[in-house]
Amino acid sequence: MRRLAIIGSTGSIGSSALEVVAMFPEEFSVEVLAAGDNLELLRQQIRTFSPQFVSVRTREGAMALKEEFQGLEVGWGEEGLKEAALWPEADLVLLSVAGSIGLLPALAALEGGKDLALATKEVLVMAGGLIMEKASEVGRQVLPVDSEHSAIFQAMGGKREIQDLKRIILTASGGPFYSLPKEELSRVRPEEAIRHPVWKMGRKISVDSATLMNKGLEVIEAHWFFQLPPERIEVLIHPQGVVHSLIEFTDGSMLAQLSIPDMRIPIAYALAYPRRLPLSLPRLDLTAQKGLTFHPPDLNRFPALRLAFEAVRAGGTLPAVLNAADEVAVEGFLQGRIGFDKIIEVVEKVMERHRNTSPRGLEEVIAADRWAREEAQKLMEAV
């Protein structure tokens, strides 16, 4: 039985992971749940899965849970996340929190000798070199949870590197506005941007999908996951969301992973790896498909992908700056402070102002992240 710590349990990935656990109670036990402020859902999860330790965002929330669930160990804040990642009774940590807050628990999990199932792409975007080096040093695995990276991982037979690989191709739905004229992007409202046409996701990642920044972050993540230079990573728009990604060999042959667009499939693969679980989900009906289309992304209308490739080619602290500026700008858009069309404009200006360096440790990555957030806030105030 695999013993799990699920960090981000009330989000879309965490909730789907718990659905998988409920399907296979003989395969998994939930030792740890960590969430933010959704205490109502967390209470339901505690009653269903009986974890040993729970962490929430605030001390007030932690005290309320401690009073309600006698004998349950409870933490909060940054220390609570670290404690969740280091919990001795867990052997696999599923990390699915949004944004850079996942960096410290990711490192803690590896340092604590845990395998890491990673859904928080910002972790590798900010500090991919440090994370993968730590995983190698302690002999633990970092397993992809994102559908695209899971697809590549599956096509490669569960390996990080294979012979005769020419390139990998990440597919993108294009989001809800890919066919919208560029001049109309300024009128996009937050409630429209969070309605993804294929996947059910959180607010931040839905906006990133709409700008194509999500795919840009995935390019950087793929660079670290599979140790490939950006020149061997490509992106194609695939609106149907059936082909989740592909690999191409040197002889021109390709392998792809196809399935219905349901995150429980890559989540289950990561949780049970190297085995596959007999999921009771609808099967992909190829005869019902009206066509599978692919075309190159329009970097003029959606420059976020171009910025991500620039960041991964430059390396250093620039990817962390890209990520931090995007987090701030997306939040500014969701709050109504800037328009949809200004999100990537803010990110690009912050990147232009950054003095790129090669980080020698986590402190320098965090410093670059903090600087970028401050710059992004200044730029939004001037918009």
Q: Poorly predicted ranges (pLDDT <50, ≥5 residues)? A: none
In CATH terms, what is the fold-level topology of the largest domain?
Answer: Rossmann fold
Helix tally equals: 15
State the strand order across the main sheet.
4-3-2-1-5-6-7
What is the top-level CATH class of the largest domain? Alpha Beta
The largest pleated sheet is described as: 7 strands, parallel
Number of strands: 11
Quick structural overview:
With 383 residues, this protein is of the alpha/beta class. It has helices at 12-23, 39-49, 59-68, 77-86, 103-111, 122-138, 147-155, 190-193, 203-211, 213-225, 264-272, 304-314, 318-334, 343-353, 362-382; strands at residues 2-7, 28-34, 53-56, 73-76, 92-95, 115-118, 142-144, 165-172, 233-237, 243-249, 254-258.
Give the helix/strand layout.
Layout: E1 2-7, H1 12-23, E2 28-34, H2 39-49, E3 53-56, H3 59-68, E4 73-76, H4 77-86, E5 92-95, H5 103-111, E6 115-118, H6 122-138, E7 142-144, H7 147-155, E8 165-172, H8 190-193, H9 203-211, H10 213-225, E9 233-237, E10 243-249, E11 254-258, H11 264-272, H12 304-314, H13 318-334, H14 343-353, H15 362-382
Parallel strand pairs: 1-2, 1-5, 2-3, 3-4, 5-6, 6-7, 8-9
Antiparallel strand pairs: 8-10, 10-11
Helix pairs in contact: 1-11, 4-5, 5-6, 6-10, 6-13, 9-13, 10-12, 13-14, 13-15, 14-15
List the keywords:
single chain, about 375 residues, Rossmann fold, Rna Polymerase Sigma Factor, Chain: A, seven-stranded parallel β-sheet, four-stranded mixed β-sheet, 11 strands
